[in-house]
Write a structure and sequence with these properties.
Elements: E1 4-9, H1 14-25, E2 32-38, H2 44-55, E3 62-63, H3 69-80, E4 85-88, E5 94-95, H4 99-110, E6 115-124, H5 134-139, E7 146-147, E8 164-167, H6 168-173, H7 184-195, E9 198-211, H8 227-238, H9 244-262, H10 272-286, H11 296-307, H12 310-317, H13 326-329, H14 336-347, E10 351-358, H15 367-379, E11 384-389, E12 403-405, H16 409-417, E13 418-423, E14 438-441, H17 459-465, H18 468-475, E15 480-482, H19 486-495, E16 501-503, H20 512-515, H21 518-528, E17 535-540, H22 556-563, E18 567-571, E19 588-590, H23 597-603, E20 606-609, H24 614-618, E21 625-628, H25 632-639, E22 653-654, H26 657-665, H27 672-685, H28 693-702
Parallel strand pairs: 1-2, 1-4, 2-3, 6-9, 10-11, 10-13, 11-12, 13-14, 14-15, 15-16, 17-18, 17-20, 18-19, 20-21, 21-22
Antiparallel strand pairs: 4-8, 5-9, 6-8, 7-9
Length: 730
Amino acid sequence: MPRFSIIVPSHGVAGRLSLALDSVLAQSYGDFELIPVCDAPGSPAADVATGHAGRDSRVAPVNSPPSAGLSGARNTGLRAATGAYVLFLDGDDTLAPGALAALDARLTETGDVDVLYFEHERTPWWEGEPTNPAAPLLAKTPAGAFSTAQAPQLTGVQLPAWSAAYRRAFLTTHQLTFPEGRFTDLGWGGLVTVAAERVAVLRSVVVRHLLRRQGSRLNLPGEHHHQLLDQAGLVLTAAQGLAPERSHALFEQLFAVVLKTASRPERLPSGHRAFFRRAGRLYRTHRPAGFRAPGGSVGVQHRLLASGAYTAFRALRGANRKASGAAERVPRPRMLRTRLRYARDLRRPLDPNLAVYSAYWGRGYACSPATIHAKARELAPHIRSVFLVEPDAVDAVPKDVEHAIVGSRRYWEVLARAKYLVNNANFAEGVVKRRGSVHVQTQHGTPLKKMGVDQSTYPVVAAATGSFAKLLGRVDRWDYNISSNRHSTQMWERAFPGSYEALEYGYPRNDVYCTATADEVARVRRELGVPEGKTAVLYAPTHRDYQTGFDTGLDLEAFCAAAGDDVVVLLRAHYFYDQGRAKSSGRIIDVTGHRSSEDVCLAADALVTDYSSIMFDYANLDRPIVVYADDWDVYRETRGVYFDLMEAPPGPVTSTPEELAQVFRDGSYANKASTALRAEFRSRFCEFDDGLAAERVVRRVFLGEPPEAIPPVIPLAERVPAPAATLVRS
């Protein structure tokens, strides 16, 4: 039997779960079992847990459906636990170094206690000093093991479930489990307090709790706050018969939580009076004999609650605090007349049949927003769509697509009125997120390089990014964030922390890689000027944050000469550089200005790139990919990356022009070894791109179809990528 069983629920925190598990496995004290509780086999968190289990036999994942909630996940972990003591750890928290050794040493000193309470740090997610709220409470307790009557002020009501170690035999004897519903920590802590007889404390930090940027979900407005009274009633019923000194302290602490909610009407959009009256009945029913309310304004609240004086209580708490709207926190449209018109339009009702799209900050009709737009015209023709473009991109918009010029009066009008807003970047700072509007973030690539707030520790990138606070203000507008693979889902969760829902539907812009025909491929090649019968190699280098201007980084004419007479190069610079080399020459065809990167990929028989995210999209075509990594170490240190591309490349890795030319000259760019690398890469990063992504988005977002009605993802082995022009796929 291990000394400790550590239970880690993981729902909604897959992006940080590995940090939590690693913090346990890195402990100097090793007599434990680690029980991650995952939604279901094959979920993102389950993949993380399974990977850890494969590396360490002490990891034993179990499954609990999301519908069971946090209480169900913890109870599932309890049933699987075999250790002498049980600890709980949230999936985005970590154990402090040496924590288990300190717990073991303290339990050796105190002997078998029912509960060992310990300190924890609350760590701000972004900046600020950690706090230790448990320290003052634990400082007032006896030095050794003691009975609960000796420290009646110490109750689990004031501490989260992960701030204590529980003797498993004690839990089993008293049949203690987490109560169903919200505020389960309150119910659990109170029930443990009532049952415990012998406890101790450890006055050092064991858990480092990450304060989520979006705050606790329990503090959000909603009907779930009524469940707080369910948990309080459960504890108060169990506490009947306790000695007065214990029951008084427990009663006061429970109602401190209840009154905190009662005094915040914004948490209860409806039913605030009913909450107050029910709390009053609970108060009168369970008030211990001889209980004296605390002094000051809190004591007044106690007396008003006891008497059911809702009107007086409402007057006492004062006027509701004025909410500071998003419009006051971000810059407004610059011209006074435009500001006034935008403010007026914000007061008009949302148009339920209006959708606004934008791609690459208005650079044109492109990427996933364009694909979703086209599918919405087919499946949801009642939706009127407007594409937002810069003035110099108007000519590139199809004639039958309605558009508005960025910054114009009409631009601000449709942004104010639209119910649906779809973008692959972000809308302008001045755009207000209206209640009832739906913002869809499509992204425009799978992240290899660090993104969002993960860039903050890389000075060159951070300096160019600007205000991370403003970035996160834009993230707060997102309702949905689209992902093409589980890697992306987890990295977006870290890079862009917010309350949006991840849609693992695939990138709509990649649909064409499964739907294009041989005729369409031939048409695109003709449009781009690829000579018939030639092998078109797409060269797409990424942007370097430490460089100014565009440099191909490679002598492309020399590459063509060395690679073979049948090779031509399609040069596509990063979209930061609108024209790349400015014009084509010889066997080099500059396609940087072509509006569609998807067309360019379809035309190419092979891809050469360094660290561009285009490799993830191109992999859907199952055509050869070669990595040209001549400055990997510099790029990794200055930009930061999420995984080592050199350890998991999509094909051969070269670092000199000679090596690059050689793999084409001898054909190794498309041999069995290259195919094997690509197959492994595709299984990881082409997970959801099956040609149906745009349909899934339209059905879910525009038509409101339930998740179970959305077309399932076609397995990778059953997909047929668009045919290449000159290569036969192995």
